[in-house]
């Protein structure tokens, strides 16, 4: 049974709102060069995006969040098929859908549903990977923020690792993408429960032969002075995770973390959404500036308050217990 203090519940909301805020903050800066430190990062409209409008990064997380809020287990193939169906419906009129994701969705069986649709998505992802020769873009990591909220019980970590890889592989066949989602989902879970960052422990959930490689990648991220210094295209899931982790490692708080992520340039909305999910899980929804939250919108009918409500429903579930007094849990940095 999960004990959720009000602090932990705020962190659950922070994982979702933090990702959406980073996404909306970074959207107008996407595909531009690195932003100089002297230039302020502001929430504003730009390109096709309205003020505070999130992109596909957050929109693709919404069906996952809604499934969890209904009490569904995302490692269930029928639930995965329902998520794919929502993605297909959303993609018809979406302003932006990742190239790889759109290719996969277009190859799924139009008449399939439930378990069959999940299987069709996996097959399509494999085909797209074979054709391109690679499929480790950052499009599955960007949507992984809410996953941990349905897996907060003590025994749930292995199930979360399975769910994270299963959701990733619906569109991203390559191992790097699944690994990144496992690491980040488990790190978000740890941050919600403890108020601390830990991306090293989650590496232990990867296959043994993958762990040393990821420790090296995290070493490189921590050694970099700024996300802009991470080598490689941050459209690649590894560089995106490294840039997000670098931003967090050097940040003084939530706002600083996502602003650093945006300054990296290129795929700014996605890197900031990834960073925002983990930073929000650590520092909580209260750390997301109100001036940003009040403008958040994207999925039809959803704004920040609806996202927060869904996040709380996903975390609470049927068996969770809410502590009646917030200060039951006191951890270093909780007041930050």
From TrEMBL:
GO terms for molecular function: hydrolase activity; metal ion binding. Binds 2 magnesium ions per subunit. It comes from the Bacteria. Mg(2+) binds at residues 55-57, 267, 269-270. The keyword Magnesium applies. Signal peptide: none annotated. Keywords: Hydrolase, Magnesium, Metal-binding. Belongs to the ADP-ribosylglycohydrolase family. Its cofactor is Mg(2+). This is ADP-ribosylglycohydrolase family protein.
